[in-house]
Amino acid sequence: MSDRDKDIEILALRHQLLVLQRQVRKPAFTDTDRAVLAGLLHRLPMGKLRQLLLLVRPDTIMRWHRDLLKRRHAATCIPKRRGRPPTVRSIRTLVLRLARENSSWGYRRIHGELAALGIKVAASTIWEILREHGIPPAPERESTTWADFLRNQADALLACDFFETRTLTGARLYVFAVIEHATRRIRILGTTAHPTADWVVQLGRNLVMDLEDAGSRVRFLIRDRDSKFTQAFDAVLTDAGLEIVKSGVRMPRMNSIMERWIQTCRRELLDRTLIWDQRHLLHALREFESFYNGHRPHRALRQAAPLRSLPEPTTEPGQIKHLEIRRRDRLGGTLHEYQHAA
Hints:
alpha/beta, five-stranded mixed sheet, 13 helices, 47% helix
């Protein structure tokens, strides 16, 4: 391309630039655009810059160049490591675990526990970890939730409730049951068509005697606010050393373990059995109680039963290859138990 052709191209480009300037009010430049223009034009004298046809003023070009030098200088001056080294993830996880498992521990108490474990970390670092994860100071999280109470006191908790069923004739019968939170053992204390105050009090006495015979050390009994539970019933249990814990109004989830067992009883027994009368109902419930406590696996117990631990796994190849399993029927086949043949 000759010099004359280049001059013509430059003039054409300059004119096209003028056309664009008339149509665009204020062009937007990216950081890359600024860096390219500043790098190309900063070497030209200011007088020469003023003669060029540019989208921005020459002073702007020089300011872009100064900013480019400042950012480059700042990037080279950043230290490789700022302040303390980052806390190891396992230590952060342990700090959060200690805080969640001990609601009354503040950051200094956690700092002391870590020191006792031979883990060196600053108290201020622990405070920062708790703050980053939204864990409030100890006084604000010291209150015990209902879930924490159930988990911490499981070995000392009983729960009870009434539920009803119908016979073939439509008669309504009431059942009173009690469950142990720790072992999930169920006790069917009685059935009746008329749950009078005296009858309920007598069930309370029967429960106390059963607990004494079993050597139980329960301390709390969870119940709802049903009017069937009288002051005399509470007095019997209080005299035996049990503290009554009432669930909230219309809050069955506060007694969820008992409610879950009632659901299981309905699904696996009552919905599959035709109940003739009160005597038949009590017989069916006694069978289900024995089945539930002695055989039925429970997920909360890692598939063990309340009164039966899991056997050692079968590992002998010959025994696994020739399994002989027998079925035992309860209540005419409503419930099935499976055992190895003798």
